[in-house]
C-alpha cells in the first residue's frame, strides 16, 4: 500500500478549516493507504514562544481530535513530531539542499513574518524544509492538506527532486535505483479546501486569528457555534440561485461552501435549495448542520481529554512505530550523502 502522511500544528484551537481542509479526510484514507498522522509540535514553536503548559495541552488536544474523528492508532500511526528526532535530522540535510531563493518565495513565511522580517525566527524561514522532512522521512507518496499548504508541498517535491539529482550516482551505488525519495502528491479534496474567516471573507480561517468569532472551534458547544454563524459577516443581498458570480461575494461563497461540504453536496445543490432566501434562514440551517457534525466530535474529544494517560500512551506507541520507519530512511540518507554511521 502507498503511504499517506499529514500533520497538524498544536498552535491553538482546532477549527472548522482544519477539519474540512484536512482532518476530515484523514480517517477516510485509512482503508486505501498506510497512514501516518503527526502532531507537528516542532513547527508550533516557529512563530512565537508557546506557553509550555499550553503547548502540552494542545499536543494532547490535536491527538484527541485525530482519535475522535476515527483514526485507528492500532493499524495506523499517530504520534508527535518531537518524539522522532529523525525529522529534525533530515530537515538539517534538507536545509543544505533547499535554496534561500526557494524559501524566500513562500507566501506563508511572508504572511507570518509580516513587515518585520529581520525579527522572524530562522525556524519560521526554514519551516518548509522541516515539513519536507516530515513527509519524506516516511517516503510518503500522498499528503492530504488544505489549499494553503500546496506551495509547501511543491517545495517538498523540489527538495526531493534536487536530492535525487544531486546524489543520483550515490543513490544507485547504494542500491536504491534511480530515485531515493518519491515526489509526493497533494490530496486536496472537496469544496471547502480553503475555509475563510467568518469575519472577513478574504482571510483564511486560522487558529492564530485574535478574534474567536472568526472561526468555529472543534471544541465549541452548540450555542457558540450558532452564535458565531449568526454573527458571521454577510452582505445585504439574499442568496443567489446559482453558483455563477458567487465568487464576487466571498462571505456568501464561504458559508455556502461550508454547508455543501458538511452535507456532502455541491454548491449548486445548496443554492438550488436556498436561492432567494435571506441569510437569517440559511444561517440557522447551517448552524444545525454544523452542530450535528461537530458536537459528537467535541464530546468525544472532551471524553478523551479526561484521561490524558491514554493519549500519552497512543503518542508513545505511535512514535516508536514511526521511528522504525524514519530510522531506515535516515540510514539510507547518511549512506548516500557520506555521513558515517555506526553499522
Ligand atoms: N482555513 C483553512 N481551510 C482549509 N484548510 C485549512 N487548514 C488550515 N487552515 C485551513 C489545513 O489544516 C491543516 C493543519 O494546519 P496547521 O495547523 O498545520 O497549519 P496552518 O495551515 O497554519 O493552520 P492555521 O489554523 O492557520 O494555524 P496557524 O494560525 O497557527 O497558522 C493543514 O493541512 C492546512 O492546510
UniProtKB/TrEMBL annotation:
<keyword id="KW-0436">Ligase</keyword>
<dbReference type="InterPro" id="IPR001412">
    <property type="entry name" value="aa-tRNA-synth_I_CS"/>
</dbReference>
<dbReference type="InterPro" id="IPR002306">
    <property type="entry name" value="Trp-tRNA-ligase"/>
</dbReference>
<dbReference type="InterPro" id="IPR050203">
    <property type="entry name" value="Trp-tRNA_synthetase"/>
</dbReference>
<feature type="binding site">
    <location>
        <begin position="204"/>
        <end position="208"/>
    </location>
    <ligand>
        <name>ATP</name>
    </ligand>
</feature>
<keyword id="KW-0030">Aminoacyl-tRNA synthetase</keyword>
<dbReference type="GO" id="GO:0004830">
    <property type="term" value="F:tryptophan-tRNA ligase activity"/>
</dbReference>
<feature type="short sequence motif" description="'KMSKS' region">
    <location>
        <begin position="204"/>
        <end position="208"/>
    </location>
</feature>
<comment type="function">
    <text>Catalyzes the attachment of tryptophan to tRNA(Trp).</text>
</comment>
<keyword id="KW-0648">Protein biosynthesis</keyword>
<protein>
    <recommendedName>
        <fullName>Tryptophan--tRNA ligase</fullName>
        <ecNumber>6.1.1.2</ecNumber>
    </recommendedName>
</protein>
<dbReference type="InterPro" id="IPR024109">
    <property type="entry name" value="Trp-tRNA-ligase_bac-type"/>
</dbReference>
<feature type="binding site">
    <location>
        <position position="195"/>
    </location>
    <ligand>
        <name>ATP</name>
    </ligand>
</feature>
<feature type="binding site">
    <location>
        <begin position="9"/>
        <end position="11"/>
    </location>
    <ligand>
        <name>ATP</name>
    </ligand>
</feature>
<feature type="binding site">
    <location>
        <begin position="17"/>
        <end position="18"/>
    </location>
    <ligand>
        <name>ATP</name>
    </ligand>
</feature>
<keyword id="KW-0547">Nucleotide-binding</keyword>
<feature type="binding site">
    <location>
        <begin position="146"/>
        <end position="148"/>
    </location>
    <ligand>
        <name>ATP</name>
    </ligand>
</feature>
<feature type="short sequence motif" description="'HIGH' region">
    <location>
        <begin position="10"/>
        <end position="18"/>
    </location>
</feature>
<comment type="similarity">
    <text>Belongs to the class-I aminoacyl-tRNA synthetase family.</text>
</comment>
<comment type="subunit">
    <text>Homodimer.</text>
</comment>
<dbReference type="InterPro" id="IPR014729">
    <property type="entry name" value="Rossmann-like_a/b/a_fold"/>
</dbReference>
<keyword id="KW-0963">Cytoplasm</keyword>
<dbReference type="Pfam" id="PF00579">
    <property type="entry name" value="tRNA-synt_1b"/>
</dbReference>
<keyword id="KW-0067">ATP-binding</keyword>
<dbReference type="InterPro" id="IPR002305">
    <property type="entry name" value="aa-tRNA-synth_Ic"/>
</dbReference>
<feature type="binding site">
    <location>
        <position position="134"/>
    </location>
    <ligand>
        <name>L-tryptophan</name>
    </ligand>
</feature>
